[in-house]
Predict the structure.
Amino acid sequence: MRKDEMLLTSNYLGRDMNVRIYGSCEGYPILVFPTQNAMANQFEEFGMIETLADFIDEGLVQLFCVDSVDADGWTSSSEDPEHRSEIIEAYYHFVVDELLDEIHDYTTTELLPITMGCALGASHAAIMFLRRPELFQACICLSGIYDASYYFGGWMNGILYENSPVHFLGNMPEDHEYVDIYNNRDMVFCVGQGAWEDNAVNSLHSIEESFRRLGVEAWCDWWGFDVSHDWYWWKKQARYFLPIVLDGIAEKLRGA
């Protein structure tokens, strides 16, 4: 398996950010966000790269696994929620205004990346995709919580609102330009109903209600009551959904 590393100095974050790259350039680019407070090496350390190795080795996908700054934003113990929200927004701009350009240059392709993540990584994957669907082709979000106020004890400001899909989708008008774009993309939101998944279940119900109101065809999938908030299940879900999403993308590209 080809493996590479990229070190980016982010002007938005004022720090260096690592990206671990797995696979060759002919593979479909997937932008991977780690779980809470984790870094670019997590998918490898927790066995997800091994789980998806056949997709990578066959040249079907190329994974770009990026560092998080969660400890300074989403999960920080700081008493200044304004500052935390500013870091969250800076991370968003790092991804869409800096990292995506580097991914396109690295792959030398015009293909729009898939976003993917588990737990808080799924929240990131959803935020990036739903805020800028014209920049991405699909998302695979596993066990995410999409209500940003959950991490702030109910606190909310305008910046955090923009990073809270439960809120901005809930208020999105039915004639918003993104509705048509969403319907030309492939979206997977999955959650188990077992241990430690209660908040993610409630969050996804809110997302599904917004999609239904907007007329958006997203795949919101609830797995069984034995399915917990854990890597064992995320690996199974990733292997299940990835080929379906890739087939859906291929069909859309053929029809374009």
User: Anything to note?
Assistant: Strands lie at 3-10, 15-22, 28-33, 61-66, 114-118, 138-142, 186-191, 219-222. DSSP finds ten helices and eight strands in the chain. Residues 2 and 23 are 5 Å apart (CA to CA).
